[in-house]
């Protein structure tokens, strides 16, 4: 049973997170800090060409280097195919398709020797013609990146075999009904997730060939599945893969897929019979770990004379790079804003992806949503200008409402978008500041919709929780999702404490380990706390039911022992006139703050029993002894969409929000100074205000980086800025403006305690809010992220003629 | 090729054999097992490996180990008091939520410690200037600034002690 809002002891408060102290003390153990007995150090030899035939690999000198224990290539190891299209390989054979292709690897007794050995490997290549943009890749006669598919069938195009479309309503009628039409071509860059802790793993095989993998992953159970498949390919069929997740030095999507370096580590561990640790350097992280996918989009929207949206068209082209990882599935999330932000009756969406010889991409916070939200929210402002309607008003007029079903089939359970818009306008002083480009200052806003109750991308979208109580009244929680900094463990700890009725410091979250935790699809789609607490809700109901049934039997004896003990100390003590035995019915117990009581008993300390003592009474009773452990698995009410049709209710509920900002633009230098940001989010219910604010601030900072600074620069497939000196992420110096955060609590009945997912929304609307504010300030619209000073100066020059 | 290095870490004298080319961070993490100091970039760009070197904040990845001969080095472990009690800067980061994934936290804590030893009551601009070399990807820095402000308060209540 969940306590009513007013009675909540922990949920909704602002409390420090349980993992913070060890992190502050330098005691948290990241993969960087782990070692295994006899461990070797792995290192990868990457390609020197973007597209080339491998003619010969000479590993002889590397093998002779003292301290080297193994040098492997695709030619002397089993073929391990990876990626959801099986178009990638742990080690590349015959040809390389990008500069980050893995051609060989070394295991050595120390990292310096491994590095030295890599330099001793020489590879002879025959360069092939390359393509570095979708246009080149899809041109007639373009060289093929993949000549055959995973089944060995001949391939005739660089277009990926993935269909993403959506059509709803009557587009022609929607276009006819439009009095105003705005359209534009937009581009968003490759950006690097930039986890402070770089990627790495330790792979260890036992004698029988069972794998234990310490992995920097967000998907331990899907990784387990991937690794089991790799073991099969290595001739280790029926062997187990156990994935253990150390403290993560950031996730942001980097851990949503398994990586070639992990499979290479497994191959090296298999070859040497020793654990192998692989750790990327910062340069490798930039150049060889999959970044956020870039996108080119064309967005068209129209509205009638009153500003009501009549249609929307979106076309997206993505440079997929050489192999398919989750970057190739961004359109699945692009569908959310395209079909469902604001009420639009007639919609068309199509996306194409092309293989190129560039780096390939994976997930990052927002996952396709910011890529199209940028164009949608920018053209909406243009439409408002044409129609002579205030941008705030056009958003209010078309806003989503609770209870509606969107063209994609999303069932909107709760929706606080209207309140988010109003709060944003209020805190920006919108009426007075909008459209008055005084001192080159302007304001802008943009809205978001995102999955807020998981996001089904797999047959199961669920997760389980085990609650194990011990003789000391501790509750040990096992959940298969991943704490990567976002505050999952804090939410889980507070939620279990609240609902079970124990003190938060009696709740311990176990390390995520596929060997001990129930299955979970992974920590993505802002789903961690939503799923974990929904599963926990079901588990703690079982615990309470069992505890209270046992209490009906055992509680009176414990109270009698209490009273007896107290009377010994204080012979004058008169117990209250209350028959404990008669009142000890299962439905009359309450557990709060780790103390078991009878609901209708007088408030008297000797009539209460400490949970730890009660659990010992349950345990130590001869042959009847029990330990209390309960498990529950939760599958959200979400549907796996039909991506080719772009239809399906992919989440159990949806998050909404608005960000607004005031900026000042220097017309001479093009520099943008943010004066204020307002973030209003429909979060369902606040779980821990402190970690929730952390998610909003952190998302906003990444949104600002995406909007103004960040871009992985490439030339002919080579990453030109693989360092924090040349790739700028926001520092504490730039983020020096006031941020006003407003939370709308819509109490969603799908959410645990009413809460929705909040991990990703913070970075979704930031770029268009800034672009709209810059337009308001100086009258130029930048459609190509990042909005650098150079682009603003050039646009201002063009405007002046 | 190794050389002998003697210096002081967290108030204790240490003596270690150091390989040619080793950096201070290698000695701290590998030879001394002080794993609290994190390596985020190896190029002095991220600040995760910030330690105090004779009282001044430095990136331990940029300091050749042999330069530490005779120096006094303080790492994040050195701010923890007897019985494992966190120092005031560490407590402030915990209290204010200046920590998410935590990988930058030891460096943030050490840069803050250095700042507050120098300026016990820093302005907002001084905080931002002192921490500009410490990158964080999780927090957006808001709660980090709040942590530093609370740390200043806690340190002054403690009479500016090292905690």
What keywords describe this structure?
heterodimer, A: 801 residues, alpha+beta, Aldehyde Oxidoreductase, domain 4, Aldehyde Oxidoreductase, domain 3, 7-stranded mixed beta sheet, 5-stranded mixed beta sheet, 22% strand, B: 163 residues, Ubiquitin-like (UB roll), DNA polymerase, domain 1, 2 domains, 5 strands
What does this structure look like?
The complex is a heterodimer of chains A (801) and B (163). By secondary structure, chain A is an alpha+beta fold. Chain A is 29% helix and 22% strand. Chain A has 20 helices and 30 strands. In chain A, the strands form eight sheets. Chain A has a seven-stranded mixed sheet, sandwiched between helices. With 163 residues, chain B is α+β, with helices and mostly antiparallel strands. Helix content of chain B is 33%, strand content 17%. Chain B is built from five helices and five strands. The mean pLDDT of chain B is 95. The interface between A and B is large, with 55 and 53 residues.
Helix content of chain A: 25-40%
Domain module count of chain B? 2
Low-pLDDT stretches of chain A are none
User: What is the CATH C-level name of the largest domain in chain A?
Assistant: Alpha Beta
């Amino acid at each position: 049973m969940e306590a009513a809002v007013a009675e909540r002891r922990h949920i909704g408060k602002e409390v420090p997170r349980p993992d913070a102290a060890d992190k502050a003390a330098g005691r948290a153990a990241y993969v960087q800090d782990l070692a295994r007995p006899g461990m070797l150090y792995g290192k990868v030899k990457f390609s020197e060409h973007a597209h080339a035939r491998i003619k010969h690999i000479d590993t002889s000198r590397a093998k002779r280097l003292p301290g080297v224990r193994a040098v492997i290539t695709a030619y002397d190891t089993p073929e391990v195919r990876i990626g959801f299209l099986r178009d990638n390989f742990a080690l590349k054979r015959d040809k390389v398709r990008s500069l980050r292709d893995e051609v060989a690897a070394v295991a050595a007794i120390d990292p310096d020797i491994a590095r030295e050995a890599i330099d001793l490997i020489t590879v002879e290549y025959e360069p092939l013609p390359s393509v570095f943009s979708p246009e080149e890749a899809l041109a007639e006669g373009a060289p093929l990146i993949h000549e055959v598919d995973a089944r060995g069938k001949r391939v005739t195009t660089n277009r990926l075999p993935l269909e993403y479309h959506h059509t709803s309503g009557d587009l022609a009628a929607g276009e006819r009904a439009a009095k105003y039409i705005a359209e534009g071509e937009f581009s968003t860059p490759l950006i690097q997730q930039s986890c402070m802790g770089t990627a790495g793993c330790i792979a260890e095989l036992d004698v029988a060939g069972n794998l234990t993998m310490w992995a920097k992953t967000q998907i331990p159970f899907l990784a387990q599945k991937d690794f089991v498949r790799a073991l099969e390919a290595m001739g280790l069929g029926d062997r187990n893969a156990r994935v253990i997740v150390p403290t993560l030095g950031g996730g942001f999507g980097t851990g949503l897929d398994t990586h070639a370096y992990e499979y290479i580590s497994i191959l090296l561990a298999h070859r040497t019979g020793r654990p192998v640790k692989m750790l990327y350097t910062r340069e490798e992280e930039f150049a060889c770990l999959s970044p956020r996918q870039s996108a080119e989009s064309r967005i068209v929207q129209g509205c009638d004379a009153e500003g009501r949206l009549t249609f929307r068209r979106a076309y997206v082209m993505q440079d997929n790079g050489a192999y398919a990882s989750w970057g190739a599935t961004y359109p699945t999330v692009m569908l959310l804003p395209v079909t469902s932000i604001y009420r639009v009756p007639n919609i068309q969406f199509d996306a194409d992806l092309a293989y190129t010889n560039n780096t390939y991409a994976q997930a990052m916070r927002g996952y396709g949503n910011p890529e199209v939200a940028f164009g949608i929210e920018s053209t909406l402002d243009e439409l408002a200008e044409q129609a002579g309607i205030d941008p705030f008003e056009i958003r209010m007029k078309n806003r989503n409402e609770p209870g509606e079903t969107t063209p994609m089939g999303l069932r909107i359970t709760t929706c606080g978008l209207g309140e988010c818009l109003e709060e944003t306008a209020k805190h920006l002083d919108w009426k007075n500041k909008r459209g008055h480009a005084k001192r080159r200052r302007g304001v802008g806003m943009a809205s978001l919709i995102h999955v807020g109750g998981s996001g089904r991308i797999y047959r199961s979208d669920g997760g389980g929780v085990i609650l194990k109580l011990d003789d000391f009244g501790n509750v040990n929680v096992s959940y298969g999702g991943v704490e990567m900094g976002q505050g999952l463990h804090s939410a889980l700890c507070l939620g279990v404490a609240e609902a079970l009725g124990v003190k938060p410091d009696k709740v311990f979250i176990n390390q995520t380990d596929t060997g001990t935790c129930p299955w979970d699809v992974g920590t993505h789609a802002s789903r961690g706390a939503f799923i974990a607490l929904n599963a926990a809700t079901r588990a703690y109901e079982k615990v309470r039911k069992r505890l209270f049934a046992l209490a009906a039997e055992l509680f009176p004896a414990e109270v009698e022992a209490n009273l007896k003990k107290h009377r010994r100390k204080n012979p004058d003590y008169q117990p209250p006139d209350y028959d404990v035995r008669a009142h000890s019915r299962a439905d009359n117990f309450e557990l709060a703050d780790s103390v078991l009581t009878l609901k209708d008993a007088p408030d008297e300390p000797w009539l209460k029993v400490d949970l730890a003592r009660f659990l010992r009474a349950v345990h130590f009773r001869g042959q009847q002894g029990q330990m209390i452990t309960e498990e529950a698995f939760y599958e959200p009410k979400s549907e796996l969409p039909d991506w080719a049709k772009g239809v399906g209710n992919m989440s159990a509920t949806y998050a909404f929000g608005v960000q607004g900002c005031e900026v000042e633009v220097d017309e001479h230098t093009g520099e943008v100074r943010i004066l204020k940001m307002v973030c209003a989010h429909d979060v369902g219910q606040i779980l821990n205000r402190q970690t929730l604010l952390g998610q909003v601030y952190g998302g906003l900072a990444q949104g600002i980086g995406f909007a103004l600074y960040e871009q992985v620069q490439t030339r002919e497939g080579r990453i030109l800025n693989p360092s924090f000196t040349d790739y700028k992420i926001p520092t504490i110096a730039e983020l020096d403006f006031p941020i006003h955060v407003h939370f709308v609590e819509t109490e969603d009945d799908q959410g645990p305690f009413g809460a929705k997912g909040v991990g990703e929304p913070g970075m979704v609307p930031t770029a268009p809010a800034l672009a709209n504010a810059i337009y308001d300030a100086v009258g130029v619209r930048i459609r190509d992220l990042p909005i650098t000073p150079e682009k603003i100066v050039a646009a201002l020059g063009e405007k002046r003629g | 090729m190794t050389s002998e290095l003697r210096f002081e870490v967290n108030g204790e004298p240490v003596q270690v054999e150091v390989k040619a080319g080793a950096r201070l961070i290698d000695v701290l993490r590998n030879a001394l097992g002080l794993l609290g100091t994190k390596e985020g970039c190896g190029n002095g760009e991220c600040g995760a490996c910030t330690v105090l070197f004779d009282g001044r904040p430095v990136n331990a990845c940029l300091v050749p180990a042999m330069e530490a001969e005779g120096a006094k080095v303080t790492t994040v472990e050195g701010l923890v008091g007897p019985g494992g009690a966190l120092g005031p800067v560490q407590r402030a980061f915990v209290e204010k939520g200046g920590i998410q994934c935590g990988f930058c936290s030891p460096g943030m804590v050490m840069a803050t410690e250095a700042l507050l030893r120098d300026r016990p009551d820093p302005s907002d601009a001084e905080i931002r200037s002192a921490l500009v070399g410490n990158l964080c990807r999780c927090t957006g820095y808001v709660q980090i600034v709040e942590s530093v402000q609370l740390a200043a308060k806690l340190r002054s209540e403690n009479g500016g002690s090292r905690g």
